[in-house]
Design goal:
It catalyses: L-aspartate + 2-oxoglutarate = oxaloacetate + L-glutamate. Belongs to the class-I pyridoxal-phosphate-dependent aminotransferase family. The chain has 408 residues and is α/β, with parallel strands linked by helices. The chain is built from 14 helices and twelve strands. It has a seven-stranded mixed sheet with strand order 2-8-7-6-5-3-4, sandwiched between helices. A three-stranded antiparallel sheet has the order 9-12-11. Strands 1-10 form a two-stranded parallel sheet. The protein is globular and about 60 Å long.
C-alpha cells in the first residue's frame, strides 16, 4: 500500500523517547524528561524584538527560496569569521532547521548505491536520510576510542562506492569533540579518495574543559571544495521550534539545493528569518555567553551527581549538552539471566521505576548507551540524575546477588 522506501526508516528514536515520556506524563505520572535535544531557555531579546518588528511591519511575503539575501549575506559574514575564510551569499542556503539542510545534502549528493561513512554512535537521522536518498550507511564503531573515529578504521571501510563521510563534532549523542589531528586526517582522506565531508557543527558553541571546536575547513582550507557545513540556531540560540538552519557549500551544490527546496518547502519562515537577521545585526554575544555559562554549571552539577555511579563510568561530556553513559559493564553480567539485554531495558526501568525519561543508545546504533540531556532546568536535572544513579546502582546490586545465587 505504501511506497517501498517507507520500509527503510522508522520514526526518529529520539522522537519516540519524547513520545514515551509524554504518554507517561499524560497518564498522570510525574516525569523528569531528559530526552530532548534542546535547551530550556527564554528567547534572546534580539530574537524577540526582531520577530515583533517583522510582524508590526506586516512581513508576510515569500523570500528567495533559500532565504533572503540580507540574511544570507549576514550568515556569510558570520561563517567567514568562524572559519577564517571568505564566504559569499551564493555559497549559503537557509533551511527549515539543520535537519532539512542535511536532507537537501543527501538528496543532491548521494546516488542510489553510494556508500556514506557514519561513525557510531550516531544521530539517528544521519543513516535514515542516506537510505531515503538510496545510499547505504557504513558505520564505524568508535566506542573503543572515546567516540572519535580512528583514521585507520575509516580507511578500512572506504570502497569505490564511498561517496561521503559524516563528521558531527561536538557529537550527538556522545558529546565527543574531534581533535584537530583527526579532522586533518579526515580532510586528507577526502582529498585523496575523492570524498565529500558532511560537517555537522550544530553543537559547536558548546565545548567544555579546554576542548575546542575546529571547523575542518579552517584546519585544511583545500578541502573546502568538497565540504558541506551544516549548522542551525536551534542549539546556539535555543530556538529549536523556530526551525532556522543553514548549509554552506560550493555554489554549484547550493544551486542544486535551491532547485530542490523550491519543490519541497520553499523559503523558511519569513518572521523567523527576520528575527535571526536582527540578532546577527544587533546581538552583542551576551545571550550566548549566558547560555554557555548555564550549561557549564549544569554539566558540572550533573557530573558531580553521576560520580556516585558504582559501575558505570562517568561520561566525559566534552561538548554539547548530553551525558552519554556507557552501560556495557552494567549490562554484560545480566546476559545469562535475562535481567536486561540492551539499554532499552534500562530506559524502560528508569521510566517505570523512577519516572525519568532518557534515550536508549539503540536509537544511535549502540545497544549499550544511554543519553541524558542536561539542557533542562537545574532543579529537574538534580532530581532526575539522583533517580538515575539510584536505578543504575540498583542494577549493579541485582547483578551481584544473581552471581551469588548462581554460585550457590
Amino acid at each position: 500500500m505504501l511506497a517501498q522506501r517507507t520500509n527503510l526508516f522508522r520514526s526518529s528514536g529520539t522522537a519516540a523517547a519524547r513520545a514515551a515520556a509524554k504518554a507517561a506524563a499524560d497518564a498522570g505520572v510525574e516525569i523528569v524528561d531528559l530526552t530532548a535535544g534542546e535547551i530550556w531557555s527564554d528567547l534572546a531579546p534580539t530574537i524577540r524584538d526582531g520577530a515583533i518588528e517583522a510582524i508590526r511591519q506586516g512581513v508576510n511575503r515569500y523570500t528567495d527560496t533559500i532565504g533572503s539575501m540580507e540574511l544570507r549575506e549576514a550568515l556569510a559574514r558570520k561563517v567567514s569569521v568562524e572559519t577564517g575564510q571568505l564566504w559569499r551569499a551564493d555559497e549559503l542556503a537557509v533551511t527549515n532547521g539543520a535537519k532539512q539542510a542535511l536532507f537537501n545534502v543527501a538528496m543532491t549528493l548521494i546516488n542510489p548505491g553510494d556508500q556514506v561513512i557514519i561513525p557510531a554512535p550516531y544521530w539517528t537521522t544521519f543513516p535514515a536520510q542516506v537510505q531515503i536518498a538510496g545510499g547505504t550507511p557504513v558505520h564505524i564503531d568508535t566506542r573503543g576510542n572515546g567516540y572519535v573515529p580512528r583514521i585507520d578504521d575509516i580507511q578500512r571501510v572506504i570502497t569505490p562506492l564511498t561517496r561521503a563521510i559524516v563528521v558531527n563534532t561536538p557529537a550527538n549523542p556522545s558529546g565527543a569533540v574531534y581533535d584537530a589531528e583527526t579532522l586533518s586526517g579526515i580532510a586528507q582522506l577526502a582529498m585523496d579518495r575523492d570524498l565529500w565531508i558532511i560537517f555537522d557543527e550544530c553543537y559547536g558553541p558548546f565545548t567544555h574543559d579546554g576542548h575546542r571546536h575546529h571547523p575542518v575547513v579552517s584546519l585544511t582550507p583545500e578541502v573546502r571544495t568538497r565540504t558541506v557545513i551544516v549548522n542551525a540556531f536551534s542549539k546556539s540560540l535555543a530556538l529549536t521550534g523556530w526551525r532556522v538552519g543553514y548549509l554552506v557549500a560550493p555554489k554549484e551544490l547550493i544551486s542544486a539545493v535551491k532547485a530542490l527546496q523550491s519543490h519541497t518547502t520553499s523559503n523558511p519562515n519569513v518572521v523567523a528569518q527576520h528575527a535571526v537577521l536582527h540578532h546577527l545585526r544587533e546581538g552583542d554575544g551576551a545571550f550566548e555567553a549566558r547560555l554557555k555559562c548555564r550549561l557549564t554549571a549544569a554539566r558540572q552539577a550533573g557530573l558531580t551527581a553521576l560520580s556516585e555511579l558504582q559501575l558505570v563510568p562517568i561520561p566525559e561530556a566534552q561538548g554539547g549538552f548530553y551525558f552519554y553513559l556507557d552501560l556495557s559493564s552494567l549490562l554484560r553480567p545480566t546476559l545469562a539471566n535475562d535481567d536486561a539485554r540492551t539499554a532499552d531495558d534500562i530506559v524502560a526501568a528508569l521510566l517505570a521505576q523512577a519516572g525519568v525519561a532518557g534515550v536508549s543508545g539503540t536509537a544511535f546504533g549502540d545497544p549499550m548507551g544511554l543519553r541524558l540531556s542536561y539542557g533542562v532546568p537545574p532543579e529537574q536535572l538534580e532530581v532526575g540524575l539522583e533517580r538515575v544513579v539510584g536505578v543504575l546502582n540498583g542494577w549493579n546490586r541485582k547483578n551481584r546477588r544473581s552471581k551469588r545465587n548462581r554460585r550457590a
